């Protein structure tokens, strides 16, 4: 898992290929480029445990910078380039970056972030001053290489995003992390892997798994932006063997015309990994019917604590499960912290996991841990007699209507199957009589007109598939949803009037 050894073995083999431009970087080139940037960072005075921020689109330049930080024992935070100046500046300042590296296209945004920081931030731009400094730096490893780590920011569903600060291991570079090894042992990534990454590199899974594919000697094909049909074309073009999608991408794939899906040969796929959000049962069935039993789901958080996994065979026997624990021990507890029996829904806690903290937020950190050393991500769920975990919803999303718990996910899983629905989010709105009432926000599919007729069509459909108290009492049609970096809908920014 040492990039130097991989470069010596694999040489000109592509480590990364960009899906749209076709630009690539070989293992040997990645080794030299990341070494040079590591020397630049060291010459700037950065030492293990220090922090850099990266502000770039999905582009090839991300990888030499990330690997330079990784082999220098640094923390590195990729910043969502869709954020406003204030939002991006908050992350750059909060993560305590002393160096901010950007693309030339995002240089103005990066300059604003650096100017507003509470400490001095050195600005470097790929292809410009960073290239000048790197061109005269050695292309051999720095003297004392240590494993660094990315520090991503949580989704920020209840306020400003929080940095997830792991403990640096102090291990020599090349040791890798548990997830890197698991990609090989549990998911089969190796020298013959062509891994498709369709998501934004400022999110944990797209960057972390692309780098993990490289750690295991494979090639990462990275999409500049997600497009359903284009992803199928790339699978066919490069003979992709492994890919990782989120359920929203599945929905968009399944809503492509049949003739479009049939026109692309995706037979090279050996594993289709999915995570990032709960997947509706029927959507997953349709994906398995189409691709075969190659879907593998995992449930984890950017916090890197518990990790659950289930393959298609086990899932078909237990529809809806997110798997059994590979890392951590699951505990289901009530509001008082008492463990609940099999089958009862409660808050999901993970025991026997590595420690992390939310950077600069001791209150949120304290809320994520209990006095037994267990950690929670705030999800609700239950386990069956065989230890398989099933998620119900996030505690913060739960709707309490007339004294009855209503789980938005259950309603969303029904509505997303209607052909007029491209995406949907269900929330609870304040109600004088019931406390909360169920309300649905709908993104209509192409060529579907929003309005009273569609509202009645969807309400009728919901009544056919759901208990009466779960049927939305109000509907709002949107042109687009506010989203988190992971693609999840940002519920707190839905236009509630």
From TrEMBL:
Q: Which SUPFAM superfamilies match?
A: Acetyl-CoA synthetase-like
Q: Which InterPro entries match?
A: AMP-bd_C (IPR025110), AMP-bd_C_sf (IPR045851), AMP-binding_CS (IPR020845), AMP-dep_synth/lig_dom (IPR000873), ANL_N_sf (IPR042099)
Keywords, alphabetical: Ligase
Q: Which GO terms describe its molecular function?
A: long-chain fatty acid-CoA ligase activity
Q: Which Gene3D superfamilies match?
A: 3.30.300.30, N-terminal domain of ligase-like
Task: Say which domain of life the source belongs to.
Answer: Bacteria
Q: Which Pfam families match?
A: AMP-binding (PF00501), AMP-binding_C (PF13193)
- What EC number(s) does the entry state? 6.2.1.3
Q: Tell me which residues make up the AMP-binding enzyme C-terminal domain.
A: 410-488
User: Which residue range or ranges hold the AMP-dependent synthetase/ligase domain?
Assistant: 7-350
> What PANTHER family does the annotation carry?
BLR3536 PROTEIN, LONG-CHAIN-FATTY-ACID--COA LIGASE
Q: What is this protein called?
A: Long-chain-fatty-acid--CoA ligase
